[in-house]
């Protein structure tokens, strides 16, 4: 299966199951990262944080591109807004934040990435999407749901043997 077929399959399965395909892809990446870790209740929370972080980074890529595009706008207000979105959030502002998603995002990144203002918006979008999935499927952990989708809907289709055939 080539890359295009993989993404088309994820898109189709996402539509069929009612899970955002980008969240599904982020979940697969998270599960792959955890492939050698025995999952238990403690690890499910960490897996969910990892999936949320990957999902936020993917959404953030889109927001980054939009901000870059608007940074060359003919409208000064759009340029200022874009410039702000692309600025790094100062560490003291992160430390003072009461946003639990931001705290988890920072913890998972562990200094390995720059956190910009557009990430705050990406975190909100990601949190809403994850909450919708949790509500629609009546699950607490999005990681367990994605694991079930992978086992039941995708395992044979997208060759996820690296995740489940150990």
How would you describe the overall organization of this protein?
The longest helix is centred in the middle third of the chain and has 30 residues, at 41-70. The protein has one domain. The radius of gyration is 17 Å and the shape is globular. It has helices at residues 3-17, 21-33, 41-70, 76-86, 91-96, 100-109, 117-137, 142-154, 161-164. It is mainly alpha-helical.
Short recap of the structure:
With 166 residues, the chain is mainly α. The chain has nine helices and no strands.
Structure keywords:
mainly alpha, 166 residues, globular
- Alpha carbon gap, first and last residue: 21 Å
Q: Percent of residues in beta strands?
A: under 5%
Order of helices and strands: HHHHHHHHH
Radius of gyration: 17 Å
* Total count of strands: 0
Number of structural domains = 1
What fraction, in percent, of the residue positions are helical? over 70%
Please summarize the sheet with the most strands: none
Individual helix count: 9
Structural class: mainly alpha
Coarse shape? globular
Mean pLDDT: 89
For this structure, the quaternary state is single chain
């Amino acid at each position: 299966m080539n890359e295009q077929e993989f993404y088309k399959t994820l898109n189709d399965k996402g539509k069929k199951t009612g899970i955002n395909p980008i969240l599904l892809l982020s979940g697969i990446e998270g599960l792959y990262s955890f492939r050698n870790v025995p999952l238990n209740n403690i690890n499910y929370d960490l897996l969910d944080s990892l999936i949320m972080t990957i999902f936020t980074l993917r959404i953030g890529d889109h927001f980054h591109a939009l901000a870059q595009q608007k940074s060359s706008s003919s409208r000064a207000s759009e340029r200022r807004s874009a410039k702000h979105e692309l600025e790094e959030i100062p560490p003291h502002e992160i430390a003072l934040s009461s946003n639990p998603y931001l705290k988890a995002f920072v913890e998972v990144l562990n200094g390995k990435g720059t956190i910009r203002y557009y990430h705050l918006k990406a975190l909100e979008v990601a949190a809403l999407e994850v909450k919708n999935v949790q509500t629609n499927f009546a699950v607490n952990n999005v990681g367990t749901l994605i694991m079930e989708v992978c086992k039941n809907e995708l395992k044979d289709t997208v060759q996820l043997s690296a995740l489940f055939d150990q």
